[in-house]
Design brief:
- There is one protein chain.
- The chain is α/β, with parallel strands linked by helices.
- The protein has 16 helices and 9 strands.
- The protein has a 9-stranded mixed β-sheet with strand order 7-6-5-4-3-2-1-8-9.
- Helix 3 packs parallel to helix 4.
């Protein structure tokens, strides 16, 4: 193993508890700080970059501005002392798979209509009760389109009463003045809205719904008028990578609180547009743009599903002669890229638990087992918590403590969630040509075998 570069934080210094504690602490010269909650499509991670600005350059709104420390409550602290495992700090919960849109990249492959087996309100309340025994996380109510679930307001109120912080990931097309008022009345601090192009024509084509862009923009304006914070999410593909500056400017013009770019993970309908996923070099370019743009952006700015970013900021900071410190880089100096199974997880509409929504492996069902037991005892979760088990160049990388690679992409490519990140261009100094050549054959064999498994699975499902 190579030594960490100058300015790197060793693994032991990547302290998610410090993040949770810091999230409730005001920055000097500012009573509140912009929330660093990744909302919207599951697979996001805690943390976030204040943009290199003093606190008063950031817009406000969200759980942190209310002094909320996710996963920092007494139950979470007692759980970690008892088990040695960090409690979940963010849970993305697909409360319904029904959706009024049919977006090309949708992880859930959601459609309009009823999905059998969705958790009932009583089942959801039971799971919330169990979660509260080990943590007080942010709960992202997502879908599908969560506003299509008529009991969403009861879910929100119940989660908050249990000590959690509910937020909503929505396409915003259903937000009327009445719904915006309800979001405010039920104390939702922020919603996230996906906007993937700066023009209606391109966005509507991607979302497969004429008028979706105009409806989402109107929903954003209504939410803001009601006093609800708004975050814009953008899924980056070959189609819109060059449009990122324009989308950012649109977000700024709308006066939203945050702008998060999501890197496509090819699962669900996203697998159908895998050829539109950026190549490794394209990832580097997009994330380098993000590093530079956040320096002057007034928005809370964070790449998501992009563990590479935490390597890139350290490389670019070092080139600028800077140390990646909390004072200069905020939460980015204290967290790591992939937190699936570490302080983040996903619950599906039927109760399946996964490290993230893109991680196509069910580790247990809350219909059959307590969430707290799955979080504590799942062998997969425990693998993900052990960075020494990473394989290939991820295992040899000096940045694995702050990156870790996307485990969902590794699983999608090879069937092995601990394999190297397939969309990373970086070659660690410790990764010799001989090691690379030997592992390339292993990686290819896994990929071919996994493709056969997926083909057989598809044939079996088609015959049912």
């Amino acid at each position: 193993m190579t030594e960490f570069d100058a300015g790197m934080n060793p693994i032991d210094e990547v302290d998610e508890q410090a993040i949770a504690d810091a999230e409730a602490t005001a920055q000097e010269g500012c009573e509140t700080v912009g929330v660093a909650i990744p909302l919207g499509r599951p697979g996001g991670h805690p943390g976030g970059h204040p943009g290199g600005h003093p606190g008063d350059r950031q817009r406000h709104g969200g759980a942190r501005s209310q002094g909320f420390a996710p996963g920092g409550g007494p139950a979470a602290k007692a759980y970690e002392e008892r088990t040695g495992i960090k409690a979940p700090r963010i849970i993305a919960w697909e409360i319904t798979r029904s959706c009024n849109l049919s977006c090309i990249h949708c992880r859930a492959a959601a459609e309009f209509g009823h999905y059998p087996g969705e958790l009932s309100l009583d089942e959801i309340k039971g799971v919330i009760d169990d979660i509260a025994t080990i943590s007080n996380p942010i709960i992202i109510l997502t879908g599908g389109e969560p506003l299509m679930r008529p009991d969403i307001w009861e879910i929100i109120d119940y989660a908050r009463a249990a000590g959690c912080a509910p937020v909503v990931g929505t396409n915003a097309t259903l937000i009327t003045d009445e719904i915006a008022a309800q979001l405010a009345e039920h104390k939702i601090p922020r919603i996230s809205v996906s906007i993937d192009f700066a023009t209606a024509e391109e966005h509507d084509s991607f979302r497969r719904q004429p008028g979706a862009f105009a409806a989402s923009i109107e929903g954003i304006r209504r939410a803001k008028a009601a006093g609800v914070g708004v975050q814009i999410n953008t899924t980056v593909t070959k189609l819109n990578a060059d449009s990122l500056p324009a989308i950012h400017d649109l977000a700024e013009d709308l006066g939203v609180d945050a702008f998060h770019i999501f890197m496509l993970v090819p699962t669900g309908r996203g697998s159908e547009i895998e050829d539109l996923e950026l190549p490794p070099e394209g990832y580097e370019k997009a994330l380098t743009w993000a590093y530079e743009r956040q320096k002057t952006s007034p928005l809370h700015f964070k790449p998501t599903d992009s563990p590479h970013y935490y390597r890139i900021i350290r490389q670019l900071a070092k080139a600028e002669g800077k140390q990646v410190t909390r004072e200069e880089y905020g939460m980015d100096a204290m967290t790591r890229g992939c937190l699936g199974g570490i302080t983040f997880c996903f619950i599906s509409h039927i109760g399946d638990v996964q490290p993230c929504g893109y991680f196509d492996m069910q580790l247990g069902s809350v219909k059959e087992q307590k969430f707290s037991e799955i979080w504590t005892h799942s062998p997969v979760f425990n693998d993900l918590r052990d960075y020494s088990k990473l394989k290939g160049k991820c295992g040899a990388c000096e940045y694995k403590g702050v990156c870790g690679g996307c485990r969902a992409r590794a699983l999608a490519a090879t069937g092995d969630y601990m394999e190297e990140e397939p969309y990373c261009a970086y070659v660690p100094p410790a990764w010799t040509p001989e090691m690379a050549a030997e592992h390339a054959q292993v990686f290819e064999e896994k990929a071919v075998a996994w493709d056969q498994v997926l083909e057989e699975r598809g044939t079996l499902l088609a015959g049912q």
